[in-house]
Amino acid sequence: MDRYLDFWNMMAYDFAGSWDQHAGHQANVYPSKSQPGATPFSIDFAVRYYIEHGVAANKIVLGMPLYGRAFQATDGPGCTYSGVGQGSWENGVWDYKALPTPGSQICHDAESVASWCHDPSTKTMISYDSPQVATEKVNYIKHVGLGGAMWWESSGDHPLDHAESLIRVTVEGLGGFNGRHMEHVENVLQYPESKYDNLRSGMPGE
């Protein structure tokens, strides 16, 4: 498929969640040797698998989450948990802009390149990307020679003028919004053969 595609958006998130038996990292770069139960999957494994099977590295766009996945009644990554609790828009799922939760401590695992917050009073862990992890993922993108970054999804981020906006941290790390590496190509929004009148006419008024 690679020769027919301009790029691949790799969904490098949701590695761990409510379907697991242990609290884990949902978007770690590398596996954890010290806590393997916390990293059932990793970005590096997926990226290298695609490259080894014929996908051009510079066509892989690394997907990153703008939300966190929660685990309740846990001591942290790799430990058992019970339930995921509430969230911003779905049980156990919190917008990045709502994190860290009040009273929680921000933690970072240098080995797996992952971050989370943990509230010792409620024993709630939320796996999400911090600005530090976003910076390290930029370094990974550059090191492997990937094609760029994308997110799910932008409403979960802080505004771009906020110092801790993950989109801002990433774009600036890749050369800035006006840098020579930033692609400025508009999406194709013309569907003249659509069966819907508004799409055929170019979605007027939108």
Count of runs of 4 or more consecutive helical residues: 4
What structural class do helix, strand and pairing data support? alpha/beta
The average pLDDT value, as a whole number, equals 94
Q: What's the main sheet like?
A: 5 strands, antiparallel
Record field, number of beta strands = 8
Strand content: 15-25%
Query: What's the N-to-C terminus distance?
Result: 34 Å
What is the 3D form?
A: globular
Low-confidence stretches: none
Question: Strands of the biggest beta sheet: in what spatial order?
Answer: 4-3-7-6-5
Oligomeric state of the chains?
single chain
The portion of residues assigned to helices is 10-25%
Global Rg: 19 Å
